[in-house]
Design goal:
Number of strands: 5
Strand order of the largest sheet: 4-3-2-1-5
Radius of gyration: 16 Å
Number of helices: 4
Length: 127
């Protein structure tokens, strides 16, 4: 059993990374996870990191992503077994025109991949 203090410490560090601070902008969730992975073994155990990724995922529900097709989508459901392949709702086509908002399960569609996560402030300018 993992001590609660270690779990809370990991969650606190992750939350601090993905929210803006006076000295820096917020990191998008996948970059926040990458920063934590750099500390894996030093500050946080492999088991704890795996639990975080399985619970929160690389792309949490609500984050915006840019797909390899040029489309922009929002994550609507995470995939515990494939954290980089969530279900997404297509919001905009490659021309930034509003799309039909279809839901696509990336775990079932190998041709679509997430190229990057879009920070919320940038998404507000697109919308």
């Amino acid at each position: 059993m993992m001590p609660n203090s270690k779990i809370l410490s990991l969650i606190d560090v992750y939350e601090a990374l993905i929210h803006p601070r006076d000295h820096r902008d917020a990191l998008v969730p996948p970059v926040g996870i990458q920063e934590l992975i750099k500390q894996e073994g030093k500050r946080f155990s492999n088991k704890l990191m795996k639990a975080l990724i399985e619970t929160i995922s690389l792309y949490p529900v609500g984050c915006f992503v840019h797909l390899n097709t040029g489309e922009i989508a929002t994550v609507v459901k995470t995939n515990k077994h494939f954290p980089s392949r969530p279900q997404v709702r297509i919001m905009y086509d490659k021309y930034r025109q509003k799309a039909k908002r279809q839901i696509v399960d990336l775990a079932q569609n190998n041709l679509l991949v997430i190229e990057k996560c879009i920070p919320s402030p940038k998404m507000q300018r697109i919308a």
